[in-house]
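To whoever is on call:

I kicked off a structure prediction for a single chain this morning and the downstream step that reads the tokens threw a length-mismatch warning. I double-checked the sequence; it's 224 residues and nothing unusual in it as far as I can see. Pasting both halves so you can look.
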Amino acid sequence: MFNVLIAEDDQMLNHLIKTTLVKSGYNVYSAFNGTEGLNIFDANYIDIVVSDIMMPGMDGYEFANNIRDRNATIPILFVSAKDKYEDKQKGFQIGIDDYMVKPIDIDELLLRVAALLRRAQIANERRLVVGSTVFDYDTMTVTSNGEELVIPQKEFNILFKLLSFPNKIFTRTQLMDEFWGPYSESLERTVDVHITRLRDRFKNNKDFEIVTVRGLGYKAIKNV
């Protein structure tokens, strides 16, 4: 199941897009401005972003720019009433992948979302390649130098998250909230235990390393 983030301040349109995507098999996160959308993006694994431009606070341009700073390849689809060439040009210069002008055909939006996912090679496989190491999100397997390793789900998810955003620092609280839930009774020490296990499993892997950032949390560094 693919995760879609919608950033749209029109509540009715936001609900329509979300309902349509959910019926089509997507998992959907809704935000009503760019700031809220960015918080959701930072806390969850997102496959594609659908965003309005004119939103209160952080508008779509600033939102997309922040997304691009975090992830250079995730598909971004703008849905906006702004129909001038200059508006579209600004979006594509930021790095969006597609642009729809309101009022939109909801069925066309579905087609475009699916096409963008295919173009990003996400529809058929969700993989992360780091040097000679391949992470397969759907099977929770890691293959390195021809050897396949199946690791516990939470360990895989933490490592996949860290390596999806190399050099980005994730706090223990962020990792706890995403993979254990904000109301979990588990202690933040649980994250440290999983990181220790990951380091032990991949101590001979030269493609990446997990670094402790004192007082903050963890980040992954690619060595390739």
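Update from on-call: the warning came from a stale cache, not from the record. Cleared it. Sanity check on the structure: The longest helix spans residues 106-119.
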